[in-house]
Amino acid sequence: MSLRIPFTTAVHSPSKPEIVLANGKQFIVMNTSTGEVIKPISENERKQEYSELYRAMIFNNDGSLLAATGDDKKINVYDTSNWSLKLSRVAHKRVNSFQFNNDSTEIVIADKFGDVYAHPNKNQEDQKEAEKLEPIVGHVSMVTDMTLSKDEKFIVTSDRDEHIRVSRYPNGYNIENFCLGHSDVVTYIQVFPWDESLLISAGGDNTIRVWEFLKGKEVQSLNIKAYIQPYMAKATDANSEEPMVRKLAIDPTKKLIAIVFAKTNAIVLLEWTSDNKLVYKSTLETSSSVLDACFDLQNRLWVTLAVAEEKDDLFAIFEEKDGKYERLSSDEPLVKQINSVETGLVEKMPDLYTIFGLRKLLDLPDFVQTPPDKARNKNKKRKVEE
Amino acid sequence: MTEEAKLPQKRYYRQRAHANPFSDHQLDYPVKPEDMDWTKHYPEYYPAKDGQVQKKVEFADIGCGYGGLLISMAKSFPDNLMLGMEIRTKVEDYVYERIKALRIQEPGHYQNVSIMRMNAMKFLPNFFEKGQLTKMFFLFPDPHFKQRKHKARIISPTLLAEYAYALSIGGILYTITDVKDLHEWMVKHLDDHPLFERLSDEECEKDPAVPHVREATEEGKKVARNQGDKYLACYRRIEDPYYKQ
Q1: Residue B167 domain-assigned (yes or no)
Q2: What is the CATH number of the domain that holds B101?
Q3: Residue A126 near chain B (CB below 8 Å)
Q4: Which of A173, A178, A365 sits opposite B24 (nearest CB)?
Q5: Is B243 contained in some domain?
Q6: Is the pLDDT of residue B126 over 70?
């Protein structure tokens, strides 16, 4: 019995009503005004051996290019006018997070090894050229996310050891300061589109924090546990007991922040008020686990869902009505159309929530002089079961 | 002599030389330097006495082993607070007991020395503010000979950025080893790092900490007994040359 692969990553163009949706080894592109599919699943490659080839995707500032990277360490850059592949580069290690610089001459990447590189946005000449690239910033533990300041004079990187580090750019060997406050892995950081001196961060410790990042100063910490706890799926191990933020979707015009949690049937909406504070707005419920979410150009929130059965929806769309965000009914023509889109197929659904593994609770301590008969089984984090 | 003041015996504190700095050791560390409670380490200095400026740790011995350097430097630098960081539990226990005993045996001394069990590779920024340290010591570090272990070396481009952050401009970083390969590795990475400038031999000889670096540690004494070579390299933290262009 073949199962539909859900859309694990969703990014919206900054300039056109188009959304790019990762689907295992392929991605599709959909028009967010009409629901029409611009770039569909390739028919002869529908059945897949699952691999997250599009783990991270990002548009450049004007939306003319899309970069995508995944399990195979390739960074592919597409021309968004016709979705042709413009160029391809190979990263040293799997990329966790990346972005184009302002003029799209570089793609700055952060890899799972903890290093940040600035790849020139052109085809790799040869293996030698790739090897000559030196890391700009290095963390001892895995870098989970990165972002450049608007003026590109600073680069901010977050890691598994709760650190947010602000370094000069491109002289990343010079650390400006740290934003220290989180008590668990930091999974998402972003500079506010409407205030380039402020950084927002989130991760595994139930808080969303705002920083004047150049000063390393925390200006707000909002605990969101109460808003999401009731919607969390049952934990399968110590790492998945507490809510884990996968990412924040930001709407620059309405100053809204949608929090995407791993393996949870809801999204928490926050608002940035006129007196510069983050406040809770509402919790949006979905029919199944949220995988990703992003705002379109009409301020609607597009949410992709994990699907178990044939009848399950792949998408939920939330729109503002009288100041509140409400889910568009499944009978709405747009919703009906997008939920019937063709996806790739797999025999067995893979683990979609490996992000819980970024926590350290299952990493056993190093016991140095344990008698052999009492030696603990020194292994490996258990996988989060479906 | 009371039970407390007896120096600990090393044979009860033996531990293998290697610990994996990448695994999570269930260490206690503050979220940020402001949150750290130093009163247990320096009870005579925290909280600061009336009219006195609060002293902070200025010298850090990374991978301090059995504490030889700190114990020997405590009296030579009585006005500076110094801290040893050691990842191996039993070794840290030994040094802790040693300092405790010395503080009792010699009242008024050794109050400026302490040790903690810590992974300095990961959590240095949690303890030290920007530019807080004036000296950092890396004495006879684990060479991690195998190529695949090179990221575990305590001197690496990644970590030098963090050490530069913790050191004040003009602060000194000391390295010494008997492994020539490791010495060349450390020198290469420090030379390559724009925020460090090597001290000349003359400057090293004039530095009052250098004799301690050479002679005071267990490792140093062992190397001397075996008539091995000791390779010293000292670097000063300088301003970022990037902005001088």
Answers
A1: yes
A2: 3.40.50.150
A3: no
A4: A365
A5: no
A6: yes
